[in-house]
Amino acid sequence: MRIDDEPAFVLHARSWRETSLLVEVLSEQHGRLGLLARGVSSPRSQALRAALQPLQWIRFSAVQRGELAQLRGAEALDAAPRLNGDAMLAGFYVNELVMRLAPRQDPLPDLYDHYAQVRQRLAAAEPLAWTLRRFERDLLEALGFGFDLAHGNDGEAIDPAARYELDPLEGPRRLLSERGVDPRRGTATGSALLALAGDVAPGAEDLASLRRGMRAVLLHHLGGRGLKSWEMLEDLARRR
Predict the structure, then answer these.
(1) pLDDT digits (tens, 9 = 90+) for 29-46
(2) pTM
(3) Mean pLDDT of the chain
(4) What is the domain range of residue 54?
(5) CATH number of 48's domain
(6) For residue 152, which of 134, 165, 139 has the smallest C-alpha distance?
(7) Measured between alpha carbons, how far is residue 164 from residues 127, 137, 173, 179, 221 in Å?
């Protein structure tokens, strides 16, 4: 199958043998694809190699043969966001999530649009925690894993004063606090869930509860195997 002039975002690139790259992209019409870019180490291929960097928006042509497509050409469509510090780690996290959860060769136009949005938000230096929670919500929805954030698994409206465990399959389950059990561990506040449902940034404490709750959902869909970016974030937090 030939792929001509296809827009895509570069998720990851690594060296292969001496002169080539293995590249993962999220394309508009074909979903996540693996590309083999041969002979990109020569001086004449400098522009091509620069275009195949993570977070870059490109237009490419390739021939799909088996699992990997053979890259025929690519060009950058804009300047990739220049991220530093926590923002750079957030970009790595977004890319790792997409690579781990999005199946190859499965068109996901909504996910492509959500990726474009989170990339723009990272470039604009919008608040990182809220930017990532919105993307996690949108990613799950685009992959068919989303659930109603305004109602619990019992069908009742979310109580802003309550806490909820996020069941990956059934959605928010109201937590009944028991003696000796910390109700905050791995749960989200009702007010945080309503804020996420309405796309309105919550306060700091509610936002922190969303991180814990969403991580539990993502971990389920990741098959129980965490992300390298989570390990990096935890290591950074210990150093600070």
Answers:
(1) 999 999 999 987 776 778
(2) 0.92
(3) 91
(4) 2-76
(5) 2.40.50.140
(6) 165
(7) 24, 16, 5, 17, 19
